[in-house]
Amino acid sequence: MKKIINAPETLVMEMCEGMQRAHPDKLVFIAKSKIIRRKTLNADKVSLISGGGSGHEPAHAGFVGEGMLDAAVCGDVFASPSTIQVYNAIRETKSNKGTLLIIKNYSGDCMNFDAAAEMAEEDDGIVAERVYVNDDVAVKDSLYTVGRRGVAGTVLVHKAAGAAAEKGLSLAEVKAVAEKAIANVRSMGFALTSCTVPAKGTPTFVLSEDEMEFGVGIHGEPGTRREETVTADELAEKLLDCICPDLPFTAGCETAVLVNGFGSTPLQELYLLFNSAAKSLEKRGIKIAKSYVGNYMTSIDMAGASITLMKLDEELKELLSAPADACGFKC
Amino acid sequence: MKKIINAPETLVMEMCEGMQRAHPDKLVFIAKSKIIRRKTLNADKVSLISGGGSGHEPAHAGFVGEGMLDAAVCGDVFASPSTIQVYNAIRETKSNKGTLLIIKNYSGDCMNFDAAAEMAEEDDGIVAERVYVNDDVAVKDSLYTVGRRGVAGTVLVHKAAGAAAEKGLSLAEVKAVAEKAIANVRSMGFALTSCTVPAKGTPTFVLSEDEMEFGVGIHGEPGTRREETVTADELAEKLLDCICPDLPFTAGCETAVLVNGFGSTPLQELYLLFNSAAKSLEKRGIKIAKSYVGNYMTSIDMAGASITLMKLDEELKELLSAPADACGFKC
Lengths: 331, 331
Description:
The structure is a homodimer.
Chain A: H1 11-22, E1 27-30, E2 35-38, E3 47-54, E4 65-66, E5 71-77, H2 83-92, E6 99-104, H3 107-124, E7 128-133, H4 153-166, H5 171-183, E8 185-191, E9 211-214, E10 225-228, H6 232-243, E11 254-261, H7 267-284, E12 287-294, E13 304-311, H8 314-321, E14 325-326
Parallel strand pairs in A: 3-5, 3-6, 6-7, 11-12
Antiparallel strand pairs in A: 1-2, 2-5, 4-14, 8-9, 8-13, 9-10, 11-13
Protein name (chains A, B): Dihydroxyacetone kinase subunit DhaK
EC number (chains A, B): 2.7.1.121
GO molecular function, one term (chains A, B): phosphoenolpyruvate-glycerone phosphotransferase activity
């Protein structure tokens, strides 16, 4: 294993310290609970909290900032943060308008975020509503989930809900926006290589030189099937053939498209995949109103990518287009 | 070779098409000359053009936008764009205030950008001044250069000169800013793995599991020496031990620090390296006024990173802090 680290045990802590040192005017790192929060909080807007296992950078700490999250809770690599960590994040960002937790649908995360919300309500009288992102069309139930997994679409939920919260909407309204975003977002990914979890030190799985894992999860968990690699055009077609019928996305609908790298995919390949996807969507009559290309929800150093589509109405389009200032997000 | 492409021959063209399709409100791709330019040009500001071989994405097309470049000329992977391509870019972005070419110091780039500037002056009466970025402290002369190589520091030169041009400064003034930025910027990098040039299909070099190439170039060209891998803290120390004495950067000086990934390095490792560098700079009494962490000047899919330091005076600090809107740049 070749990594720029000091030791696997201190990786998450040092990475979070690095984020704070790099963005001292915008972020505060609370080491005790591994929370990254905005430096300047606004108690008159709904507080938005997300998080989960580390290893998905810039998710989620890179999405803390104006127009997006108020705090991100960082678990160990690919491990949910504890109930206490999440509880502390809720208290740290307490708002007069209440709190919304945006949770990726993994059993561990759901359990710990739910328990933290209940504690905050019982002990501190803080109302903490929850939404669960489950955009991955690859698998219905998986190693770590009941129901679908939450993957890159989560970022667009952060963006839409973040803009709604920044506008001063009520907790019920922000939650409704998040739920609408979740109901309209779908993703599908593939891996060309495995990630290597630092504490393990060896790749999670091995693919031969002409294989890809189709429908892979963001923790290196298995996808739907192992297949031969294909061209970028064929790949985009295959991914969209899984995504489009699911919602469905049909001719005439307007979308946001996110081509998300898994960590070690060069940007040149991501733009090329976006190009292939855009051509395929055009043939399907599906319009692209917003585009995002880059590393948003990674799987440490996995090579591969996912495509996310969000179906937009006027409200979602306006919220995605609102300004945001988070170190890991490009509008 | 596992890559998300259709064919090596069409990669650059399709990638550029993808950039335009992703950012249609901001970028125009002129396919004939492989130029990416701003959609809206302003003839009353100095035009800034950069470019070079492809494979360094987001450099340079990702830095086209308000507050940065007006156009980027895209060569084939790791090959200089031709004289005619650069000449067409100069004509495409003709301004009443003249043009500045920001060139990374490689023999091929210097020759072609220089010849294009001369053609533009002789044939069209366009004044196109040039500056040459040579921030890499690793090697004095190299495979592809007379003098030092231009690497990640180029991005900060784009930013400073771009902000100066946007303010409406004259060509001489913008050139002076660029030259000051170049005089004050130094970089040093290392590779943990080689890149794979698509047309070749195999890695440029091979490192064993405990080796790194110290002082590597951004085309996979050899560095100063092959060494054993070390911890992130030791790595930051070694890189800064090369960079700091060179200018020199001494106690009390203010800097911008860029930790730049080479393409397949996870963001978690880049923030960790930034953290190590920040601790080392603090011990040296060197202040960090601006920070950048991410993929800015890559080497396709190389694993590794570089550290860039720019010594700041009030003018450079103000210019780096000015707003910029380019799809590959995070302020």
